[in-house]
Amino acid sequence: LENEVNMDDEYKKYFSFAQEKLDELIEIKGIFHDKNYNNNELFLKNLDLIKSRMHTDEKITQRISTLTKKDSIRNPSFSEREKIQQKALKLPLLPTTTIGSFPQTLEIKSLRNRYKKGKISTEAYDKCIKEKIAECIKIQEEIGLDVLVHGEFERNDMVEYFGENLSGFLFTQNAWVQSYGTRCVKPPIIWGDIKRVKPITVKYSTYAQGLTDKPVKGMLTGPVTILNWSFPREDVSNREMALQIALAIRDEVLELEDNGINIIQIDEAALKEKLPIRREDWHSDYLDWAIFAFRLVHATVKPTTQIHTHMCYSEFEEIVKDIEAMDADVISFEASRSNLSIVEALKKVHFKTAVGPGVYDIHSPRVPSVKEISNTINTMLEKIKIKKLWINPDCGLKTRGETETVLSLKNMIQATKSIRKELK
Ligand code: GLN
Ligand code: ZN
Description:
binds zinc ion; alpha/beta; binds glutamine; 9 strands
């Protein structure tokens, strides 16, 4: 904790990092050997500290306690919406898109870094981000994608960014967690009740949409993933935290919709991560409230608004029914590394949601050939109805280089176009 110079002492006293934990071990040993531990000074001090931490915002607690199943039901039903959206969005067969982020170059990382350190003004920073967005939209139009994204250049990480823009979170300078290979993230700490105090993504999403006639997907992180990739509170339940976040993200969804964003993706990359070890606890203890939280986020949007979600980092076969119960309109997921086994599972349950199983692996800099991608799409078409299939890479592109990204996406579009042609 000594190195956390930005954290207020007011908060610091509640935390224990590596060194403090060593001290605590010694204290616990002392308390353990104290026959009269109930009166042990250190023990009592710790109890007081824990008690002083308990606090909740009455208004939010109230709002959550009055939620019912009805609040999570989106009308009209999926099959009705499917027709309505087809008419409204007029997308081609096998619509093409990406998962959200575009390459985070050194230039963009250094820009964010300089802004964070106060070395450049908000205006200058904003101007640079907008330039990157404009460039990204232009590239996607040139490539020929159908549904565009703004590129997520303003985001360090999909969870930390939302944490920074919602109230109720604290941040560390050094509490890094390894996420994938050599990649690390710095999860925010959920400290208090979570509220949306201002629009988060509306400015850049609407800016991007203003630059093109193609639809630009709004890009949000879902409540379960924000919870699962944060350090949680210990004084309220996971369910309570997830629902607080859901209500906050729901307000963001509605404001995006109000501002002309007709397709909104709510990422749930980490949906499976808090799944209990025992299968019998999956629903009672987790999936029921996790799915409810996700549904709350989009239940009140217009039928014409298309809700996407995205998932990765796990095998989904066992929970396809629950994924369907999220009631999204489209779901994209990582599939290329698991031999497309998921596609078979989707067929088995007659999965209703439209799907975009990734057609190439973004974890490698290798550029997939047109032939390779066409083969993958054709294999998918053996199991998935053509009207339900979307074409996209298998995750966000932020860890990739710019050149390989453009080449890979161009091949993806060429493969899609030639398959569309064959179908005619
Ligand atoms: N929208 C996010 C991105 O493209 C999703 C990241 C993820 O699934 N981990 O970066
Ligand atoms: Zn992903």
